[in-house]
């Protein structure tokens, strides 16, 4: 303790301008975990209020996409599906994809949507986009139940590989959050992001093996394809649940590495921009 | 260990005005760099950019602010809109960063910057208590422990499981204040929460804040409500255009603020001190209340030119005092003293000493006397010989006089500005004769 500190009643914290890159302050984020919990709980609680179909929307979205894909890609275009019935081949990918796409969209708009909070109260801002992605887990769980029912219907039984599922979900979470952090911070200053995100998710879906298998590509291109982290997630889900012989292999490691880079860079960029959020938003 | 809780050292905050200067700049730069762009374009863009960079679209919300706050102080921050008060609280609560300087803080800071921030209309009162508590930094157990006290204070227990979108604005506010008031920070920052809600609830909030102050916690309180500042704060800081203009005892600083800009004053119909201990005054004489009333007796600060204005001064004499007299002066918006009044001929104030007790002096300013405009009422409690002030001269109330143009004031049907410091209706006696007498 310095001399000056002895004039204070207790431990002193300093508020001063920060410059350049700043620490993530994960410890502080952890201290605010209850706030995170309440933000997630609020998002879930409020999401389907005043909707006629309520939580059914969590299922309708991926299910009908699956139906459309099955008709056009499966039946008409005769898209190969690694020997798995096309509907479940598509649905096993659409469930994690929907989680990712909705999580990304919600995280990207989260700061602007919570501007009243940001301007009036202090808390680690990282909590807002994190809550935006986490609150989609409930929708994911509902769609996942439908996926399990479809597996029973198609008499497909998972192998021990199913134990990898939580990690694959984590990979989807990390990717959605990483991209969401970049976009939410950019969105504060450039509202263009609101128009970019729907576009991007659409393009990204076609760049991800949702409607087609990644086995269309040969090595080393397939591993390179894994740099799109969602390719790893989607192929991983099929492998873990449907016993797909085409194990993702090195593709998944490329995905994990790419996702980590996006998350870490996104988090630092977010923290760097954070100091102006309350002034600009 | 000292007793310092806050020390601000050269605190400054700069805002850029204009939506997104950086975005525009990149756009212009790319225009300038584009090879095929006509020179005229590039030149214009560069000129615009240079003008923009000159700093004319920057404002300093705070500039080189230094102050210290000690434990248990209740400090009032006053100043006009845009003086930097709210910016200062935002920096202290870490919502925004200073642009220069630093502030050192010892203890947990809780802020009440806007009542009801983070309330969600679709959630019930109960759910919002938990959500809002978490947003304000309370732990779950803390909220659970104080839940009953919060509901009790808010007076909405019957609707606690109803979504707050069905609440009246009063209920909404009470619940929101109740949550924030049960925060337990060592330093509490309060911004203008009393601007809303009915008088009874405002009094309740003020009472709660007084309790917080008495518990030895530090409170920084921003308000335009001068009576509230005088009631709560022993010390005040007056900010103007981002600078500290005055720092010290609340009472003279409030008086100075009220003089600072006569044209932007809000009207204030009454001030009251519930306890002699914290009321202004010296040596056994204390100001109790100051009120403006309409003819019907209701406190009022907006008057019609035709109606009389009743000024009421109440003061305590705690032990026998010399022959003090309450007096007041009325100043118009140009700072001119329109008149001074004292109960010179009132028998109550004739004696050579004053017995202990409560004195109430009422003076009626007749209707059709004050001109249209905004006035400040300055009071004092003093002896005339020798000239000695027991309650020093201080401007505490503001009121306004309007002419609604009904045709029965001195202006009649005239719609323009009627000149003069006062606007009395005099008796006129006029005659007419049909003869025109020739000079010859």
Give structural notes.
The complex is a heterodimer of chains A (281) and B (440). Chain A is mainly α. Chain A has one domain (24-280). Chain A is built from twelve helices and one strand. The longest helix of chain A has 31 residues, at 250-280. Chain B is 25% helix and 32% strand. The A-B interface holds A 4, 6-18, 32, 34-35, 37-39, 41-42, 45-46, 49-50, 116-123, 189-190, 275, 278-280 and B 1-5, 7, 15, 20, 22-23, 71, 90-107, 111, 113-114, 117-118, 120, 122-123, 127, 130-131, 134-137, 139-140. Strand 1 (12-15) of chain A pairs antiparallel with strand 4 of chain B.
Summarize this entry quickly:
The complex is a heterodimer of chains A (281) and B (440). With 281 residues, chain A is mostly helical.
Task: For the structure shown, list the relevant keywords.
A: about 280 residues, about 0% strand, elongated, B: about 450 residues, six-stranded mixed β-sheet
List the helices and strands and how they pair.
The complex is a heterodimer of chains A (281) and B (440).
Chain A: E1 12-15, H1 26-31, H2 33-47, H3 57-76, H4 86-113, H5 115-120, H6 127-134, H7 137-153, H8 165-189, H9 193-206, H10 221-225, H11 229-242, H12 250-280
Chain B: E1 4-16, H1 21-33, H2 39-53, E2 58-70, E3 74-78, H3 85-92, E4 100-106, E5 109-112, H4 125-135, H5 140-154, H6 169-181, E6 187-191, H7 199-214, E7 218-222, H8 226-232, E8 235-240, E9 243-249, H9 250-260, E10 270-272, E11 285-293, E12 302-304, E13 309-317, E14 321-322, E15 325-332, E16 337-341, E17 353-354, E18 357-365, E19 373-383, E20 388-402
Parallel strand pairs in B: 3-7, 3-8, 5-6, 6-7, 12-20
Antiparallel strand pairs in B: 1-2, 1-4, 8-9, 10-11, 11-13, 13-18, 14-17, 15-16, 15-19, 19-20
């Amino acid at each position: 303790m310095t001399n000056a500190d002895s004039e204070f009643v207790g431990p002193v914290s300093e508020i001063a301008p920060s410059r350049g890159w700043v620490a993530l302050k994960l410890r502080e984020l952890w201290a605010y975990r209850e706030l995170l919990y309440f933000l997630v709980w609020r998002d879930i609680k409020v999401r389907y209020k005043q909707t006629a179909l309520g939580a059914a929307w969590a299922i309708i979205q991926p299910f009908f996409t699956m139906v459309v894909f099955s008709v056009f890609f499966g039946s008409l275009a005769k898209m190969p599906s690694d020997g798995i019935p096309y509907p479940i081949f598509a649905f096993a990918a659409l469930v994690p994809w929907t989680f990712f796409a909705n999580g990304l969209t919600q995280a990207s708009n989260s700061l602007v949507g919570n501007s009243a909070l940001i301007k009036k109260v202090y808390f680690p801002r990282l909590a807002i986009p994190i809550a935006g992605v986490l609150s989609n887990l409930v929708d994911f769980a509902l769609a996942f139940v439908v996926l399990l029912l479809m597996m029973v219907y198609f008499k497909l039984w998972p192998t021990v590989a199913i134990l990898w599922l939580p990690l694959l979900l984590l990979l989807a979470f990390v990717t959605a959050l990483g991209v969401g952090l970049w976009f939410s911070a950019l969105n504060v200053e450039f509202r263009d992001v609101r128009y970019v995100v729907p576009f991007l998710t659409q393009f990204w879906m076609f760049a991800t093996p949702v409607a087609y298998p990644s086995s269309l590509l040969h090595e080393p291109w397939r591993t390179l394809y894994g740099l799109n982290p969602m390719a790893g997630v989607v192929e991983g889900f099929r492998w873990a649940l449907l016993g797909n012989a085409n194990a993702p292999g090195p593709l998944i490691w490329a995905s994990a590495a790419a996702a980590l880079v996006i998350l870490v860079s996104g988090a630092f960029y977010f923290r760097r921009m954070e100091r102006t959020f309350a002034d600009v938003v | 260990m000292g007793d310092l809780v806050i020390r601000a050292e050269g605190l400054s905050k700069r805002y850029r005005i204009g939506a997104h200067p950086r975005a525009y700049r990149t756009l212009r730069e790319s225009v300038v760099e584009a090879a095929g762009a006509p020179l005229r374009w590039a030149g214009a863009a560069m000129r615009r950019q240079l003008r923009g960079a000159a700093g004319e679209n920057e404002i300093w919300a705070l500039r080189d602010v230094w102050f210290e706050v000690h434990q248990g102080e209740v400090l009032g921050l006053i100043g006009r809109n845009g003086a930097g008060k709210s910016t200062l609280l935002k920096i202290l609560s870490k919502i925004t960063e200073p642009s220069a300087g630093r502030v050192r803080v010892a203890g947990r800071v809780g802020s009440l910057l806007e009542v009801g921030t983070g309330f969600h209309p679709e959630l019930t009162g109960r759910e919002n208590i938990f959500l809002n508590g978490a947003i304000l930094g309370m732990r779950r157990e803390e909220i659970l422990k104080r839940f009953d006290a919060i509901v009790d204070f808010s007076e909405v227990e019957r609707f606690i499981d109803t979504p707050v979108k069905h609440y009246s604005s009063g209920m909404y506010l009470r619940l929101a204040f109740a949550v924030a008031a049960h925060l337990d920070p060592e330093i509490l920052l309060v911004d203008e929460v009393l601007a809303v809600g009915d008088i009874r609830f405002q009094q309740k909030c003020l009472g709660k804040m007084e309790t917080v102050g008495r518990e030895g916690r530090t409170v920084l309180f921003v308000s335009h409500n001068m009576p509230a500042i005088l009631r709560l704060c022993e010390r005040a800081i007056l900010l103007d255009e981002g600078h500290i203009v005055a720092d010290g005892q609340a009472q003279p600083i409030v008086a100075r603020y009220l003089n600072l800009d006569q044209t932007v004053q809000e009207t204030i119909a009454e001030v009251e001190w519930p306890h002699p201990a914290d009321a202004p005054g010296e040596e056994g004489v204390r100001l109790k209340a100051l009120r403006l009333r309409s003819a019907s007796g209701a406190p009022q600060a907006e008057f019609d030119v035709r109606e009389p204005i009743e000024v009421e001064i109440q003061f305590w004499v705690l032990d026998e005092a010399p022959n003090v007299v309450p007096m007041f002066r009325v100043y118009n918006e140009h700072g001119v003293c329109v008149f001074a009044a004292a109960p010179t001929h009132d028998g109550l104030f004739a004696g050579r000493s004053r017995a202990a007790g409560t004195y109430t002096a009422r003076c009626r300013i007749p209707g059709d006397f004050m001109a249209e405009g905004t006035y400040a009422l300055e009071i004092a409690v003093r002896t005339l010989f020798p000239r000695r002030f027991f309650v020093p001269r201080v401007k505490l109330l503001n009121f306004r006089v309007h002419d609604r143009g009904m045709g029965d004031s001195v202006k009649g049907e005239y719609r323009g500005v009627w000149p003069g410091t006062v606007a009395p209706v005099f008796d006129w006696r006029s005659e007419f004769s049909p003869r025109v007498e020739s000079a010859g």
